[in-house]
Structures are given as C-alpha cells and as structure tokens.
Design brief:
single chain, about 400 residues, alpha/beta, Rossmann fold, about 45% helix, globular, binds pyridoxal-5'-phosphate
C-alpha cells in the first residue's frame, strides 16, 4: 500500500527531497531540536489535540465556510468557482491557524514571549491575538515600507498589546523583518519562541506550520464533497512563503488527478517581459539556494545573494519559498503560475463588486488566476483558497488605484 505523502515528508532531518534542512549555528540547532521534540510529543497528545480543536471551534470560528461564487461563475461563463473562506477565520486570514498552535506549543514549553516577523501584518495580528489569549508577551518585527502600507494591522497589533519593532535596513520589507526578528529571538531563545509566519525557516518550522495549516484542506475536502458530490478539478492558492497554499493542497496531494496550482506574484512585470527586482516569483524564476536557514528555490542577485523583490501584496514579496513547495513543484505534483499587480487589483474589485467580499491583495492573486482560466474550462470546478480579507488593504488600494474604475 502506498504511504500517504504527509506521512513521508519531511524526513527526520526536515528534508523534502533535497529542500529544507536547518542551516544554522550549532547553538541554535539545539533550540530547534528541543522545539521539534516538544512538538512531536504534543502532536500525539490527546489533551493538546482536544484543546486545539476547542480553540478552533469556539475562538477562531472554524470550520470556515466553503462558498459557491455564483455571480463570478455566471460572468466568466466557464468553470464553477468556489471559495474557501479563510477571510472569515478570526483576525481575517489563515495565519491564526498556525499562530494558535505555535502559542500552545510555546505554553507547553514554558516560554514567556512570542517573537515574529510580519509582511502584510496578518501574521503579526494573529500572533498578537494568540499572545493575548495565552497571556504572553509579543514582539512583532515589520519593515517600514509594510508599516506604511498596512497601517490598520499595525494599529490592531498595538491594541492587542504587542510591541511593533520597525525594521529600517535593506529593502525594509518581509525579508529584513525575518532577519530582525531572528536576531531578537537569539537574544533569549530560552524564554521566547520564534513563531515563524509561514512554512519557511529551519527545520522544524516548515513541518510545524504546515501541520497546523492542514485544517484548511481537510475542511475544504469534506465541504466540497458535501456541496457538490465530487472533488474540485483545480485548486489555486497564492504563494508567498507558502502556508495557505500547503494548508489547502495538503489534503489533496494524494488525489493525483486534481491540479494544485500555486500562484506567485509577478509584480510590475508582464509574462512576456519579466524584469528582475520587479516581481517575487521565486519558484518561477529562482534557483536553488540557502537563506533564513533552509535550502529552497530563491531569487538571487548577480552576487548570489537574495534579490530585491516587489509585489503589490506585502505578504508575498519574499525572495524564497517554503521548501515543501520547492519539492512539490520539482516533482511536478504542483504547477506554478504567475499573476501581476494589475491583474491582481482587477480581481480584487471583481470579487468586491460581484460577490460582496473584499479580498486581501495576497488572496486576489489566487482568484485572478482562477478567473483567467475559468472561461476555457466549462464543466470543471475550481476551488480558490481565499486566504484573507482585504480590510487591511483598502486605504492603500484607494490611494493608488482609486475605486478601480480605470483598471
Ligand atoms: C491574507 C494572506 N494570504 C497569503 C499570505 C502569504 O503567506 P503564505 O504564502 O505563507 O500563505 C499572507 C501573508 O501575509 C496573507 O496575509
């Protein structure tokens, strides 16, 4: 009998094929080993599982709905379009799924403080929420550019009692926020936990975050079957670090006839004219390389260092990607597509105007790709992971694109 994919990967050293691992100094390796052992212990523990289930139901509001987007489907006149509504998860995005789990792990390990980076601010808000829930200290590192762009989330983090540390070096976005947060964690790894915001970083983070996000796909699979009597033909999800994508893909990896499509940000580029520095499509245009303690596919500059990147979505402008996505695309189990800023903003307004749902700019990438392929796929069903809601983005959108009339 075939061993289910999720039982095979990662291996004990945190590898998905040649991707993953833990490329960090020995002193930190010890901390990572402790985190891994603690996680493996509680992941099997009935009390931990019961507490997490209760949190998901009573605090997060799970399961989130699965929604048939009838107006979009009618307009695009092809494949049926369905949305997994992670925008309705408490705090407005999928990020709380792993934050509550990471905080529960931190509590079990006797940690007092949670530290993390954030791009769009959704992971920061989710972690600040988890810290408030468990009565822990919280420190969030965020690039100055993202602070300006995603200001509503900065306010939310502060209201929730978190300390927000502005990051003013380098590109002042997500990559530098990770550098800064990791530095802060190294000051006191005994009392703090670096609760990373995606399936990136050294082993065991890609495994832990993946496992906590799998609930998205598990729910979606049952809901889709109950609603339609079958499973989707295609699933799309945006890919920054890759946590929402693996969350929904995870439950379908062994259903090999289902197309799993990760959508990367092409930024200001066009597909026939891709300019380095103007996009963050790591899997599409990157090569093998190590950064932030893991081996994956990354965008490099001429010296082999992480390239500068751009996306209209702060949560997607990262020059690498979770090692599991590097592996899944290398074996052909996932396909990778790209959507640029312009197509993203168009999809943002389409969903807002046609269905009454304002999506996060990140999630709008996954939707935009679904809208692109839907007209030629009559009779098929596309499931889109709507990873978050766009309340955080409205000021930025109106300032830069007005009310979408000229798009
Ligand atoms: C709503 C939303 N979707 C997606 C992402 C991208 O992260 P990931 O690729 O880990 O899902 C973010 C990151 O901030 C986000 O806020």
């Amino acid at each position: 009998m075939k061993i289910p994919y999720l039982k095979q990967f990662p291996n004990n050293e945190g590898y998905f094929g040649k991707f993953g691992g833990a490329f960090i100094p020995d002193a930190i390796l010890k901390q990572m080993k402790e985190i891994n052992e603690a996680y493996d212990l509680i992941a099997q523990n009935a009390d931990f599982i019961a507490e997490l289930r209760k949190i998901r139901r009573d605090f997060q509001g799970r399961p989130t709905p699965l929604y048939f987007a009838k107006n979009l489907t009618q307009k695009y006149n092809g494949a049926g379009i369905y949305l997994k509504r992670e925008d309705l998860n408490h705090t407005g995005a999928h990020k709380l799924n792993h934050c509550m789990g990471e905080a529960l792990l931190a509590k079990f390990m006797g940690k007092k403080k949670l530290i993390a980076e954030t791009g769009a601010g959704q992971h920061g808000v989710a972690l600040a929420t988890a810290a408030a829930y468990f009565g822990m200290e919280c420190e969030i590192h965020m690039g100055e550019i993202d602070i300006e762009k995603e200001y509503p989330n900065v306010t939310r983090m502060k209201i929730l009692g978190a300390k927000v540390v502005p990051v003013s070096f380098g590109g002042r976005t997500l990559k530098e926020a990770v550098d800064s947060a990791f530095e802060a964690y190294l000051q006191d790894p005994i009392n703090s936990l670096y609760a990373i915001g995606s399936i990136v970083g050294p082993h065991p983070f890609p495994k832990i975050v993946r496992d906590f996000q799998l609930i998205v796909g598990i729910e979606a699979k049952e809901q889709f079957y109950n609603l339609t009597g079958e499973l989707p033909d295609i699933i799309t999800a945006c890919v920054g670090g890759g946590s929402n994508a693996i969350g929904i893909f995870g439950a379908f990896i062994d259903d090999e006839y289902i197309d799993l499509i990760g959508v990367e940000p092409l930024g200001k580029s066009e597909s026939n004219n891709v300019i380095q520095g103007s996009h963050a499509a790591s899997l599409s245009y990157g090569s093998e390389g190590i950064m932030h303690g893991f081996n994956s596919i990354m965008l490099k500059d001429e010296n082999g260092n992480p390239a500068s990147v751009h996306s209209v979505a702060s949560g997607l402008d990262y020059p690498s990607v979770g090692p599991e996505h590097a592996y899944l695309s290398s074996i052909g189990r996932t396909k990778i597509a790209t959507i640029n800023d312009k197509e993203t903003i168009k999809a943002f307004f389409e969903l807002s105007r046609l269905e009454g749902i304002i999506p996060a700019i990140e999630s709008s990438h996954a939707l935009a790709y679904a809208l692109k392929i839907a007209p030629s796929l009559k009779g098929k069903k596309i499931l889109v992971n709507l990873s978050g809601r766009g309340d955080k983005d409205i000021d930025f959108i109106v300032k830069n694109y007005g009310y979408g009339d000229s798009i």
